[in-house]
Specification:
There is one protein chain. The chain is an all-alpha fold.
């Protein structure tokens, strides 16, 4: 995949640094994008787009917290992709793909049902807090919100999930 990205961008500098970044972050970003988009192909495309944006930015070495920066780019990219998908579903004569693709992993059916009832932003918050174990401050930086706002949304989300159980 790294070779494809390098070919698309026409860049041959910082190859080792970029390769290390992709190898160390691809799986986590894919799972994160999938948790928001709920579609295998869209998640794969989103991760590739995120890496392309990072490479094209050209300031990889100047980033203080690469992990948080990648998640922030992925979050906004996925949200924009969902907005485009919603717009296309309202345009007549355009067939949009089915957004509910069966999950490839062996997650519990009840958990899948609960996740499907959550908004994309809520799913992103759950993944970052529970699966990736980020602090509220880190999640706030990723989602471009304040830490108290994220904390409050998380508490409300826990209540919502309890009701869905």
């Amino acid at each position: 995949m790294q070779h494809k990205i390098m070919t698309l961008t026409g860049m041959n500098t910082q190859t080792e640094e970029i390769e290390t970044m992709i190898l160390s972050h691809y799986d986590k970003l894919y799972k994160y994008c999938y948790s928001i988009l709920r579609n295998v192909e869209d998640a794969e495309d989103a991760v590739q787009d995120v890496f392309l944006k990072v490479i094209k930015s050209g300031n990889l070495s100047a980033i203080d917290n690469l992990n948080a920066w990648l998640y922030k780019i992925a979050y906004f990219h996925c949200i924009n992709k969902l907005k485009r998908r919603r717009i296309l579903s309202f345009v007549p004569f355009i067939e949009s793909e089915n957004p509910m693709v069966k999950a490839e992993n062996a997650m519990d059916e009840q958990l899948q049902n609960i996740l499907s009832q959550l908004k994309p932003e809520e799913r992103a918050l759950i993944v970052l807090r529970i699966i990736e174990n980020y602090s509220f401050e880190e999640i706030a930086a990723i989602m471009d919100k304040t830490a108290p706002t994220i904390r409050k949304r998380y508490e409300r989300l826990k209540g919502k999930i309890k009701k869905l159980f």
